[in-house]
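User: Design a sequence. Structure:
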């Protein structure tokens, strides 16, 4: 049981959670973001030069992304193999993106 608990603790420490975001922002690898779209749509721009294994987590803070969307701007790298930005329209969405390469780009670690 100890190795599993230790691994879980390491994962928690590896994520640096940021204060709630209420305006457009640049996301950084290793960070987690609570995105509050209560009053407006918000765009989070992914890093321009990610490296293999970089992870970023996003959570719909107020459950309002179905009304005011969250856009994940790809910044020239694909998201799930597509050359387009990701628009989040699901209330209470939470997910982690992990960067793999320039072909597939950012993939969903969890959904």
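Assistant: Done.
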């Amino acid at each position: 049981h100890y190795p599993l608990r230790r691994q879980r603790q390491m994962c928690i420490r590896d994520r640096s959670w940021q204060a709630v975001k209420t305006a457009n922002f640049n996301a950084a690898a290793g960070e987690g973001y609570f995105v509050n779209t209560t009053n407006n749509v918000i765009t989070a721009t992914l890093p321009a030069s990610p490296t293999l294994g970089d992870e970023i987590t996003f959570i719909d803070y107020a459950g309002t992304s179905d009304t005011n969307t969250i856009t994940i701007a790809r910044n020239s790298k694909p998201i799930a193999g597509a050359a387009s930005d990701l628009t989040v329209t699901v209330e209470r969405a939470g997910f982690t993106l992990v960067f793999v390469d320039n072909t597939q780009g950012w993939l969903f670690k969890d959904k």
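The helical segments are 2-14. The first helix runs from residue 2 to 14.
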